[in-house]
């Protein structure tokens, strides 16, 4: 979980977490929270953001909780070509484990086994479900949104008196091909 302050703060203290039955959470961002999030995520607008989650004691043992849920958002991103708004609806799941006994690990373990679940994260003072939801939302954003039909048009420019480069001239082996032809000399028939 990130260490930056959340603009969508939904924090549940460690001593308030359920010990026997799951706690269901359903929350929606206010207009002010949507505006602050849109600004911090460099989005044109977040029209709606809803989180449905569950904090449940994990089967892994006492002092371990699973936080799972889904964030749903209606957003406008800037088109990478026209800068106009690109509307999108995101539904992103999240699923994390937290343990009262886990320690913050600063070492990098390069021996990764992909068939195992991630180890539980340190619980600390509690769980910020809002931060988990925003992390899932960010991972679901289109990194290069485009409006329908928008295409990037390359522009060729050069200083006055110099001819602009053509796409053929920028190919790495174009010079070698012409050199090869020159070395072969004229062909005799």
Could you outline the blueprint of secondary structure elements for this entry?
Elements: E1 11-13, E2 23-28, H1 31-40, E3 45-57, E4 64-78, E5 85-99, E6 121-122, E7 126-128, H2 129-140, H3 174-184
**Oligomer, anyone?**
single chain
Could you estimate the helical fraction of the residues in percent? 10-25%
The major β-sheet equals:
5 strands, mixed
**Low-pLDDT runs:** none
Strand order of the largest sheet: 2-3-4-5-6
Number of helices: 3
Report on the structure:
By secondary structure, the protein is an alpha+beta fold. The chain has a domain of 130 residues. Helices cover 17% and strands 30% of the residues. It has three helices and seven strands; from the N terminus they run ββαβββββαα. The strands form two sheets. It has a five-stranded mixed β-sheet, covered by helices on one side. The protein has a two-stranded antiparallel ribbon with strand order 1-7. The protein starts with 10 loop residues before the first strand and ends in a 5-residue tail after the last helix. The model has no long low-confidence stretch (mean pLDDT 83).
């Amino acid at each position: 979980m990130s260490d930056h302050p959340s603009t969508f703060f939904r924090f549940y203290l460690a001593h308030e977490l359920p010990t026997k039955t799951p706690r269901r959470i359903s929350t929606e961002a206010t207009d002010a929270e949507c505006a602050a999030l849109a600004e911090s995520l460099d989005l044109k607008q977040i029209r709606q953001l809803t989180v449905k989650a569950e904090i449940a004691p994990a089967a892994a043992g006492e002092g371990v909780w699973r936080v799972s849920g889904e964030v749903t958002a209606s957003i406008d991103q800037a088109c990478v070509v026209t800068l106009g708004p690109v509307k999108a609806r995101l539904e992103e799941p999240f699923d994390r484990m937290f343990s009262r006994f886990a320690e913050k690990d600063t070492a990098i373990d390069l021996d990764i086994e992909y068939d195992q679940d991630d180890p539980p994260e340190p619980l600390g003072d509690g769980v910020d479900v809002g931060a988990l939801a925003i992390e899932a939302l960010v991972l679901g954003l289109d990194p290069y949104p485009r409006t329908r039909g928008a295409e990037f048009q390359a522009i060729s420019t050069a200083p006055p008196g110099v001819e602009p480069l053509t796409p053929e001239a920028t190919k790495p082996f174009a010079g070698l091909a012409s050199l090869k032809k020159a070395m072969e000399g004229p062909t005799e028939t």
